[in-house]
Design a protein that fits this description.
Blueprint: E1 9-12, H1 22-26, E2 31-33, E3 39-41, H2 51-60, E4 66-69
Antiparallel strand pairs: 1-4, 2-3
Bound molecules: iron/sulfur cluster (SF4).
Iron/sulfur cluster (SF4) binds near residues 20, 22, 63 and 65.
């Protein structure tokens, strides 16, 4: 579709996630902590100007539980 940005969305694998919260520190704009320090992702696609931050959050996850899809 002309002029349409590719949408990229964060996903967390709740089985793999160990609640290190490193992703929350890395990308607080779209990832917050639940009461047990597990990540809660903001709904919807990552705004284009925040995609680099999202990619960084994906890299810091030590168990590869966080992915950027799309
Ligand atoms: S860094 Fe990875 S393991 Fe830690 S809370 Fe985030 S998704 Fe879960």
């Amino acid at each position: 579709m002309p002029g349409r940005h590719q949408e990229r969305t964060l996903r967390v694998d709740p089985i793999k996630c160990e609640g290190h919260a490193l992703c929350i520190e890395a990308f607080p704009e779209m990832i917050t902590a639940d009461p047990w320090n597990y990540p809660v992702l903001a709904p919807g696609p990552v705004p284009p100007h925040l995609v680099r931050h999202a990619e960084h959050a994906v890299k810091v996850c030590p168990v590869l539980a966080l992915r950027l899809v799309g």
